[in-house]
Amino acid sequence: MVLGKVVGTVWATRKDEELVGFKFQIVKHIGLDYKLKDTFVVAVDTVQAGIGDIVLVCSGSSARQTTLTKNKPVDAVIMAVVDKLDIEEEN
Amino acid sequence: MVLGKVVGTVWATRKDEELVGFKFQIVKHIGLDYKLKDTFVVAVDTVQAGIGDIVLVCSGSSARQTTLTKNKPVDAVIMAVVDKLDIEEEN
Amino acid sequence: MVLGKVVGTVWATRKDEELVGFKFQIVKHIGLDYKLKDTFVVAVDTVQAGIGDIVLVCSGSSARQTTLTKNKPVDAVIMAVVDKLDIEEEN
Amino acid sequence: MVLGKVVGTVWATRKDEELVGFKFQIVKHIGLDYKLKDTFVVAVDTVQAGIGDIVLVCSGSSARQTTLTKNKPVDAVIMAVVDKLDIEEEN
Amino acid sequence: MVLGKVVGTVWATRKDEELVGFKFQIVKHIGLDYKLKDTFVVAVDTVQAGIGDIVLVCSGSSARQTTLTKNKPVDAVIMAVVDKLDIEEEN
Questions:
Q1: Is there a contact between C41 and E80 if contact means CB atoms under 8 Å apart?
Q2: Cα separation of C74 and C24, whole Å?
């Protein structure tokens, strides 16, 4: 999984019929210092993550292993909201 | 999913027989500021996206979860046309 | 899918028994201007692409969705020979 | 698989219900000289790896092939703790 | 598939029980000129590749399509030993 921060939402009316009702969140990747990177991914939210939340994003076929996303054409899903990172060894 | 803009089309007469009738769109990746990046992907269009449309592209096995692409040898599909991006937190 | 140009062939006598008879082509990635990039992928040819052909390469599990590659240990397949690219919007 | 070193843990109370009890470890990628790289992945631990351990991380759908992670929305798993690397040819 | 050269071996006693007896080879990526790159992957050997061999590595779910690796938590497999590369067009 990758770490990221929810920074926005994608609005899309015209989409595959299987995707009606899905919330597409924009997740910027972050480092272990919580700093935002330039890269981002658009992920379906399954845990009601809000703007500013630090989250874990699961990609690929594994993104279809939640009740919500089963058999759906999505390749990234927010499956956890992060409380904190415990970094014990950095070097 | 990744964000991109449809900038063109790939014409291919000789192809796997399962792909007859498919439209292969060239999608350039974009940033959250809508600026085009240098990278691109060729994706099957399932939502009748047109040139200039901002779209969401789903990759990997998830690209085969639409009615059109089921069991087909394609690894990227346009599954939504983007209306707008709501960016609420950038830093 | 990614765009590439067939520039050579890989010869491999000792291989998984499921792969006997497969043709492994070396495909260099290209840009929308047809210029070769430094990166490449080795892909199984299913459409009799020849040296110099511009092709579409499909990767991952989707590379196993052709009649030839079903259930085979291959992760990239040439599934179309490109006639031309129509680029209508570049900026 | 990729080589990495366990440097920390992710705490996440709110998560997909299938993930209760999972341990999410932060694994920094390393080179063949054991030096830490800047990149990292968050992986589910299935072999009780501890902080400082050198590990192998398996990604994608293959990350769901352990007893623990079967059908779960995870895309990276620690499936081995490394004893040592034997590098016999470097150039 | 990607091209690489076997440069070493990973020893791991503590691992997923499905992986007992597997040989994990360290494969450095190479260019079409056979020069080693800095990047590498750890792959399960299914064709008895030796140190110094040039090999093809198959990744992702396709790495589980050999008799040895079926349903195992591995995401990269050496499925061919390369005899030679025929590069016919470079520019």
A1: no
A2: 10
Distance of CA E55 to the CA centre of its chain: 6
Grade residue C4 by pLDDT with cuts at 50, 70 and 90: very high
Rounded Cα distance between C89 and E43, Å, is 42
pLDDT at C66: 96
Q: Does residue B90 fall inside a structural domain?
A: no
Contact A13 B88 (CB under 8 A): no
* Mutation choice for A interface testing from B85, B90, B91 by most A CBs within 10 A: B85
Say whether C2 and B72 touch across the interface (CB within 8 A).
Answer: no
CATH number at residue C71: 2.40.50.220
How does the average pLDDT of chain A come out, rounded? 96
Percent of chain A with pLDDT over 90: 97
Residue B72 resides in a domain: yes
Q: Is residue E73 part of a domain?
A: yes
Does the pLDDT of residue D90 top 70, yes or no? Answer: no
Q: Say whether A81 and D12 touch across the interface (CB within 8 A).
A: yes
Q: Mark the ranges of chain B whose per-residue pLDDT is less than 50.
A: none
How many domains is chain B partitioned into structurally?
A: 1
CB B8 within 8 A of CB C88: yes
Q: Which domain holds residue A23?
A: 2-81
Mean pLDDT of D25-37: 97
What is the pLDDT, as a whole number, of residue E86?
Answer: 97
The answer to whether residue C42 is domain-embedded is: yes
Q: Rounded distance, CA B70 to CA C17, Å?
A: 28
Q: Which site among E55, E56, E74 would you substitute to test the C interface, given the most C Cβ atoms closer than 10 Å to its Cβ?
A: E56
The answer to whether residue D41 scores a pLDDT higher than 90 is yes
User: Rounded to 5 degrees, what are φ and ψ at B64?
Assistant: -100, 15
